[in-house]
Structure formats: structure tokens, C-alpha cells
Specification:
Blueprint (H helix, E strand, L loop, with lengths): L9 H8 L2 H8 L8 H7 L3 H4 L1 E13 L4 E12 L3 E7 L5 E7 L2 E2 L2 E4 L2 E10 L4 E11 L11 E6 L5 E6 L21 E9 L3 E2 L4 E7 L4 E8 L11 E3 L1 E10 L2 E10 L3 H23 L9 E5 L4 E2 L5 E3 L23 H8 L7 E3 L6 H19 L1 H10 L26 H14 L2 H14 L3 E3 L1 H12 L4 H9 L5 E7 L2 E7 L9 E5 L2 E5 L6 E4 L5 E2 L7 E4 L2
Parallel strand pairs: 1-11, 17-18, 18-20, 21-22, 23-29
Antiparallel strand pairs: 1-2, 2-8, 3-7, 4-5, 4-8, 6-7, 9-10, 10-15, 11-14, 12-15, 13-14, 16-17, 19-20, 23-24, 24-27, 25-26, 25-28
């Protein structure tokens, strides 16, 4: 959930989304200034594209008392080109103790948060190789997780340690060595986390085994059998209690595993029981089967608000409906379900199953997932209620910068990717005007782009092709321009003249108006058009995120 939307804290959250200098530059339509560190992290150079990650084994010891981490990560890869040098990533507050290749240490150099290693001989295209990075250092502690990222060290009511980590935006390389770019998801992964005796670690995937170590620690070995984003790899450490359930879904029996603090057990049974299965039914209906049946579905008590960690969702909504007990839409519909459960689980489809190659395109994650909240409302109170919910969240839109950010510099666009992004998706549904087709598009996206990384351009082309409509100017307006379109109109006698005022040349989005008690479609352009008018001119402002302005 890329840095959560919050009531009455919009400007603060936007600043947390993007560095202040970048925000200022965008808002003044200036070219933002980026550093070499931004390029090293965000750009796919040959030192990164020359190898494809097949498998990681992250083996990490967490010294909670000293907030110190130490361990290693095995990189198994396939050379996609001839290479003798490559780049991986690790924040510079963590030491690279050594890099082992075929039993020997490799030389390496560091620049900002990038690490470059040199192999003793050329690795030919198609070869499969591996190296192991050993590292250690003080854990980076989040000041306001999950917005700024890092480790959170807390305690339960018994005074026992309660530790979590969140790193979306900040980067997985803030706590483990990895190829830190969304375009390359590892195919599978073992996550071994060693914690002090008496505590449990819960990570992604399935628990394979536990090992009692001689130093008083216990190692928990979790295996992820699907491709996974770097930023959704996680650990959760506490004196957890476990309970489980199952859901009969489209691909059979889906295990539901819940790990919560002991003091929260009864609250969790009630809240999870009320929310999870109805939500899964809605999402499987609209988006297709839950993407990670082999690894199961988990909710885990976290010492921060939440995060969409794949198959291991971090939950910190205090067992309240709404967003920490509030309704982001102001309609009341958002208080009938648990926001964090719904939103973070929605990311299992949009974000974890379908992943943007560059974080500049994060609206694919956040826009569709916030739209999914409206589908949950629709399942409870009907289609019109779902539309009202999505319209209601517009009050949080800033229209400050574009939703799509700059590419190749590890920078997101506006936080409007949530609210405005959801409204764009709803507009597309309204224009397609065929819910059977719309459902097939949403399911098709998850089938055809599932377990892959993609781009805005690919998503646009897919929806246009499946809908049979030219939607390019609509995507341009809402993703690549800061403002929303204004429908201008003039009424004279029994006629009305109308046009779009838009930054997009030739903008011609169709829109509905109320004609008596029925909707009527009109096709405005940036040139004036005139038609006879028998009733009031009433644009459908609930289903279209636009403004309407009468000029006479």
C-alpha cells in the first residue's frame, strides 16, 4: 500500500511520498533535479539487465536488543548477456562483509547504495551462476512507518519484543542485499530469519522448518514459491499466537493463516472472520483467482498501519472498521468493512500479481486497488453506493502533480495515484458501459499480466483493445496532466452548446448527462457542439471526475 492515504493529513503524506524538492519542481512545471544515486537505483543499465534473478536465499539474524542485523543473501541468476561485472543494491549504512563466488571472495566497489562486483572470467549468456553476499550493520529504524520505511521496534502488552519492517518506496536494499528494481522479480525465494528464543518470525510463503541454534536463537525458514517483489519480502517478529481457517475459492481450498499478538486473539477472530472471506469472494469474482494459492493467505499483527507483503499482509488497523475508524470517502460506506484488510488484500492482485516495472507507474498498484474498495462497497450496498464511495474519495485529491512520475530515477508521481487513480478506473468502467466486458477485462489483466511486471503503456493498450474503444486521451488527461477536464456549456433557448476545456489536444471523452430520468451520452470535443435541450443540462458528476461550468 504505497504510503497510506490519511484523513486530514493529505499535505503531510504527499511530502512523505516525494521529496520536497521534487514536489516543488513538479508543481512549478520545472524539470526536477535528480542525482547519480537516483539513476543508479532507478535506471536499468546493462550492469542490471545482463542478469535475471532466479532465486534468493536470505538468511538473516535479528539482534533485537542492539537493533543489529547480520546475515547473507544468495543470488542465483541467469546471464541474459555476456557479463563480467554486475550491480546489486544495499544501503550504505550496511557493511558488505564479503562476496563469495565459487568459494572465493570477489572484489567489489560501492557507490552510494549500489554495489559492483567483478567476476574472474567472462560469464556467457545463458549461463546459470550464483554468488553470496554477507552483510551486517545497524537496522535502519523507521520514524513513522510505513510512510518512511525501515524497521519498527515495539513491544506487546507483556513487554515482549514486536518487530516489523516496511520498505516500499524506500527500497528493500535498506535491509537486505538485492537487485532493487521492480522490473526483476525473483522466481522463488527462501527467507530464513533467526530470532531470540521465545519469539516467532512470520515471513512470506509457507513455513518449511524451524531450527534451534546454539546461540539461543531460533531460525524460521519460509519458502515463497511464486515470483515476488523485493519490497513485499518481509519479516514479523513477536510472541505470536496462530489460528487458521480456509476459503473455498476458484482454485480450490485456500488456507487462511492468522498470526496475532496474544492480547488481540479474540478481537482478531471476530474482525478477520467478518472481513476476509466476503472480501475474497468479491475480489475473486472481479479479478480472478487469488494469485498465490500455493503460498496461502496470511494476516499478521504489525506494529505499524499495514503493508501488502505478498501472502503475508501486515495488519495494524486496531481491529476497527474503516481507516483507523474513519471513512476516507465521507459517505459512511467505508465504515462497514476494515480498510487495511480490504486495501492490502486488493494489492495481492494489483501490485503483487501485476507489478509495474518502474515505480513511476505505481498508479497501476494504487489506483486499481483503491477502486477495489468500491467493489466491496458495491457487494454490500449496491452499484450506486460503490460509485458514491469512489466519488467520495475525490475530496482527498490534490491535483498537485501528475500521477505518473519521472522514469528511471526511482521516483513516484503524485499521491493522487490512489484517489484520482481509482476515479480514472471507475470512469473507464462507466464509458465501457458493459459490466460483463469490464469484469472480463479486470480478470484478463490478472491472467495475462499476472506474475509479471508491466507498464502503463501496456495496461492502456490492453484495456483499449479489449474494450474496443480509443481511451488514449482519457489516460493522458488523468495520468499525464495535473488538472481534470472542465465541461463548459452555454444554454440558449431550447439548445445547449458544450465543449471540453482540457490540456489534452483534441480531448473528446464521452460523458453522460441526465435527460429526464434517464442517462444520455454526449460526445464533447474541444470545439463547440450544439444540441436541442428539453430538460436541464445535468452532467453525471458522480461517475465522471470532471468539473462542469456554465458560461452564461
Amino acid at each position: 500500500m504505497n504510503r497510506y492515504p490519511g484523513m486530514n493529513l493529505k499535505s503531510i503524506l504527499i511530502f512523505l511520498l516525494i521529496a520536497l524538492s521534487t514536489l516543488s519542481a513538479f508543481s512549478q512545471n520545472k524539470t526536477p533535479v535528480f542525482t547519480k544515486a537516483d539513476t543508479l537505483r532507478g535506471k536499468l543499465t546493462p550492469l542490471r539487465t545482463s542478469y535475471d534473478i532466479d532465486y534468493y536465499h536470505l538468511d538473516l539474524k535479528v539482534d533485537i536488543a542492539n537493533r543489529f542485523i547480520s546475515g547473507s543473501n544468495v543470488f542465483k541468476f541467469t546471464a541474459t548477456d555476456d557479463l563480467q561485472r554486475l550491480q546489486f543494491d544495499l544501503f550504505d549504512h550496511l557493511a558488505v562483509d564479503k562476496v563469495i563466488y565459487k568459494g572465493k571472495e570477489l572484489p567489489f566497489q560501492r557507490e552510494f547504495n549500489a554495489v559492483f562486483i567483478d567476476f574472474p572470467a567472462l560469464i556467457k549468456q545463458g549461463s546459470k551462476e550464483e554468488f553470496n553476499v554477507h552483510y551486517s550493520g545497524k537496522a535502519l529504524v523507521a520514524k513513522r512507518a510505513p510512510w518512511d520505511g525501515g524497521f519498527t521496534f515495539a513491544q506487546d502488552i507483556q513487554g515482549k519484543p514486536w518487530v516489523g519492517v516496511s520498505c516500499q518506496g524506500l527500497g528493500a536494499s535498506s535491509w537486505w542485499p538485492t537487485k532493487d528494481h521492480q522490473s526483476d522479480e525473483v522466481d522463488s525465494m527462501m527467507i530464513s530469519i533467526s530470532v531470540p528464543e521465545g519469539l516467532m518470525n512470520v515471513s512470506n510463503g509457507r513455513l518449511r522448518s524451524t531450527e534451534k541454534l546454539k546461540d539461543g536463537y531460533t531460525r524460521y525458514n519460509w519458502f515463497v514459491s511464486y515470483p515476488i517483489n523485493n519490497y513485499t519480502v518481509t519479516l514479523n517478529i513477536a510472541d505470536y499466537v496462530h489460528f487458521d481457517d480456509s476459503y473455498s475459492g476458484e482454485n480450490g481450498n485456500l488456507t487462511l493463516d492468522y498470526y496475532v499478538l496474544r492480547e488481540n486473539l479474540e478481537k482478531a477472530k471476530k474482525q478477520f472472520g467478518a472481513n476476509v472471506k466476503p472480501m475474497l469472494k468479491v475480489f475473486e469474482n472481479w479479478f480472478g483467482p487469488y494469485p498465490f494459492y500455493r503460498d496461502g493467505f496470511k494476516l499478521i499483527d504489525a506494529p505499524y498501519l499495514g503493508m501488502e507483503h505478498q501472502s503475508a499482509i501486515a495488519y495494524g488497523n486496531k481491529y476497527l472498521n474503516g481507516y483507523m475508524g474513519t471513512d476516507l470517502s465521507g459517505t459512511g460506506y467505508g465504515l462497514k468493512w476494515d480498510y487495511i484488510i480490504v486495501h492490502e488484500a486488493g494489492h495481492e492482485w494489483f501490485g503483487n500479481n501485476i507489478t509495474s516495472k518502474d515505480i513511476a507507474d505505481m498508479w497501476i498498484h494504487e489506483g486499481f486497488t483503491m477502486y477495489s474498495e468500491g467493489l466491496v462497497v458495491e457487494s454490500i450496498d449496491g452499484k450506486k453506493a460503490g460509485a458514491k464511495y469512489i466519488a467520495g474519495v475525490r475530496k482527498n485529491v490534490a491535483n498537485n502533480i501528475t500521477i505518473i512520475g519521472p522514469y528511471d530515477v526511482n521516483t513516484e508521481g503524485s499521491g493522487d495515484m490512489y484517489y484520482k487513480g481509482a476515479n480514472l478506473v471507475h470512469i473507464l468502467r462507466t464509458i465501457i458501459d458493459d459490466d460483463t466486458k469490464w469484469r472480463s477485462i479486470l480478470r484478463g489483466l490478472n491472467k495475462d499480466f499476472g506474475l509479471k511486471t508491466t507498464t502503463t503503456g501496456e495496461v492502456e493498450k490492453y484495456i483499449a483493445a479489449k474494450s474496443g474503444k480509443d481511451l488514449s486521451k482519457i489516460f493522458d488527461q488523468y495520468l499525464r496532466f495535473r488538472t481534470i477536464p472542465e465541461l463548459q456549456y452555454k444554454i440558449s433557448g431550447g439548445t445547449v452548446s458544450f465543449r471540453w476545456n482540457s490540456e489534452v489536444p483534441g480531448f473528446d471523452m464521452p460523458v453522460r448527462i441526465m435527460a429526464g430520468k434517464k442517462y444520455k451520452w454526449i460526445q464533447p470535443s474541444t470545439e463547440w457542439k450544439t444540441m436541442k435541450l428539453k430538460t436541464a443540462f445535468a452532467p453525471d458528476l458522480e461517475n465522471f471526475y470532471i468539473t462542469a461550468k456554465r458560461l452564461n
